[in-house]
Amino acid sequence: MAQIVSQSSNFPEIVELNVGGQVYVTRRETLTAVPNSLLWTKFTQGSPRDLPKDSKGRFFFDRDGFLFRYILDYLRDSELFLPEFFKEKRGLQKEADFFQLPELSRRLAAASKDSSCTEDSGEPEESELTSPVTSPSGRTLRSPGAVSGYITIGYRGSYTIGRDIQADAKFRRVARITVCSKISLAKEVFGETLNESRDPDRPPDKYTSRYYLKYNFLEQAFDRLAEAGFHMVACNSTGTCSYGSNDPGEDKLWTSYTEYVFSRRTD
Predict the structure, then answer these.
(1) Which residues contact 113 (CB under 8 A, 6 or more apart)?
(2) First to last CA, the chain
(3) What is the DSSP string of 29-86?
(4) CA 212 from chain center: how many Å?
(5) Nearest to residue 171, comparing CAs of 117, 132, 217?
(6) Full-model pTM
(7) CB atoms within 10 A of CB 10
């Protein structure tokens, strides 16, 4: 036991993972929540130098980065709710097998079998999507397995309107989509699509307003937020108008800045 404590203490309390290109930030105690699982073994009986790392020093696992979020959910609370119309139960079971989580694997196998029977009978596929994967103790408490918080998405855009106001406006490409939030929350949701160059090496528990996304479309950011359980709660926009010259007949150039506020509550 003394050896295990010693090895575990070599890892930071807050751990950053790169799982198949997706970045996750969590506590070491979460990763070691299930004794004898693969992550428990890696982070209690190994040492940081034994694990592969990416170019930014995050511990790297070459697994399905999207499905790992559900593995992390299970480790946090020993239970799991899957989103509606979830079609990756068998894939998630493979991930559970890899990470040596037999109870989660068993329940996913049972759920996959039940949904296969439902499909064969021609009945609507419904219960598989809202049924929780409960803990070994049999508890069935709803837990999305993620922390509450806010993320604000901002962007600046511009467009021109010609002298003929009936003509279509000429929109220009969105210059940059910014992210304002707690560091750990932004990394959880956006992973490798997050550009940290303007505010590098910030601790996970700090906040930033200087990150931006490697996206060209706002809808890409909205999709990621929706997948992570966020809902839009507010938005605000401001705009200015200017002429290319003093001639009022010239095209008008409009510049706007818009913010969308997203919230996730887990209580």
Answers:
(1) none
(2) 36
(3) HHHTSSTTSHHHHHHHTS-GGGS-B-TTS-EEE-S-TTTHHHHHHHHHHS-B-PPTT-
(4) 15
(5) 217
(6) 0.46
(7) 12
Q: Which helix (H) or strand (E) is 151 found in, with range?
A: strand 149-161
Question: Cα 224 to the chain's mean position, in Å?
Answer: 7
Residue 184 tokens read as 């750990």
Tokens 């559900």 belong to residue? 70
- DSSP-assigned beta bridge partners for residue 242: 253
CA distance 78 to 54: 28
Query: HSE of 146 in the Cβ direction (CA atoms, 13 Å)?
Result: 26
Residue 89, helix vs strand vs coil: helix
Encoding tokens for residue 68?
Answer: 């790992």
Q: Count Cα neighbours of 192 within 13 Å in the Cβ-side half-sphere.
A: 13
Q: CA-to-CA distance for 104 and 88, rounded, in angstroms?
A: 14
pLDDT tens figures, 203-256: 888 899 888 898 888 888 999 999 989 999 999 988 777 655 566 566 667 788
Residue 81 one-letter amino acid: F
